[in-house]
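Q: What would this chain look like folded?
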Amino acid sequence: MDFKSSDTIPGPRTEDRLPHTAEAAVKIVIVGGFGVGKTTMVGSVSEIRPLTTEETMTQAGIGVDDNYGSASKTATTVAMDFGRISITDELVLYLFGTPGQERFWFLWNGLFEGALGAVVLVDTRRLEVSFDVMGRLEERGVPFVVAVNTFPDAPRYPMAELRTALDLPEEIPILDCDVRRRASSRDVLMTLMRFLHALAMKGALT
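A: My prediction, written as structure tokens:
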């Protein structure tokens, strides 16, 4: 398509424009295994229409992708999800949801670049997936909190037991959440921001 000099390219929608009071922006990544709720979390909490890269799952994924506990899931993120939330008038978080299927994990390194912190979403039906996820964050030096998504059919455990099962140090926050609810997802992000602030005060962040 050829554009004439008189043509105008539409800008962002009014509701998508960055608040004029914003003074600082922080990149946060939402990570976890397949089907733990990353796309749902970004969508529930974002104040702008989220960008998603979901594609329909096909027969080609059978035997390759582990969809245990997510048999009814028909689409999957193949690149990233993106959203934005203003924590205060001055502070804005840019949210990047990572793809969950292991064959797309090579994309994580790029998404981790410049991230100040991360949320690790956990499904108690598949705790073992979380070890690789947390290990990758630790290798990159990205601080994180752990949020246990409360699926209706997932077993519930005391937080102390989950901390032990995940071999999670005492200083790393772990909490329940329902990523379908905006308030719950926002609470997780606020927990992460408080954790990052505490690390900064200790000089652990550079």
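The first strand starts at residue 24 and ends at 31.
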